[in-house]
Amino acid sequence: MPSAPLFAMPSHAADLARIEAALAAAVRTQDAYLDEIASHLIKAGGKLLRPVLTVVAAQVAGGAPIDDAVQGGVACELVQTGSLCHDDVMDEADTRRGVETVNAKWGNLQAIVAGDFLLARASEIAASLGTEVAALLARTISRLCEGQIEELRHTYNAARPEVSYLSSIRGKTASLFATAARIGGLVAGLDRPHVDALTEYGEAFGMVFQIVDDLLDITATDERLGKPAGHDMVEGVYTLPVLRTLQSGGVAAAELLALFGKPLDTAERDKALEIVRANGGIASAMAVAEEWAERARGACELLPPSAATDVLYAAPAALIAMV
What we know:
By secondary structure, the protein is an all-alpha fold. It contains 17 helices and 2 strands. The protein has helices at residues 12-26, 32-38, 40-43, 49-57, 67-91, 102-106, 108-128, 131-152, 162-187, 192-219, 222-225, 231-234, 240-247, 250-259, 266-277, 281-300, 307-320; strands at 95-96, 99-100. Strands 1-2 form a two-stranded antiparallel ribbon. Strand 1 and strand 2 form a beta hairpin. The longest helix is centred in the middle third of the chain and has 28 residues, at 192-219. The N and C termini lie close together (9 Å).
């Protein structure tokens, strides 16, 4: 997904610099080998949407960014990066963010340990921000696992219920966005109704984010994605545009069903991409993303008027425009 500044405040460049410096410090250890492995995906770059969201959320009542918001956002980003290390082992992925994955470069064992280390550092940082933030992050890691298991139990299942897809992305993606936004509100000392509204916003935005990401896996080029298009279908993960194409019935659904249920070779992947791109599944999935975007904007109506609230309000539409 393109790295557009979805949450760009006037201090965006300075905030990014603070986040990047804090991230680098968070993975620095006495072991140069572990440093290299743990920082590999961080150095490869990323959108940093979760920590930026934390910093922006902390400013919805006005005021300057605070160090605790940066640290809370870094904890969320470390959870994200650690989970990517583990995901790439499960997917046997070769590239991530345009570079070799940790497992491809150093092996599965090192990738698993690196992921564990990043999750541990995230927990340590969260604990420094208080028991509520620590408990929140721990629960979020649990929800990520629940979402991942829900996806895995339906791998190669062409009859996957749509409710399973939505439950999976709510756990594996939206929960961490919700936590990032909630931490921002908590460390800024916002009133509970505003903290809850930020949490609702983060979850809705996270749902939009994952649906858009799944749409781009179908619609975007390999070069734009930094990995082969249609990778989810190859791995037997049937996402919303695919499920909506299957639900539509007819020749398109029958052709997809004939391909699914097993790994796809390159020709089969290209055929599946052609089918989904040519039918109504993409537009139908976009409509679901729009519904979640509207929920995110509704949550903004519950927040104090501010420049930060305006930025949050505009972000879901900007995300959808990337498809």
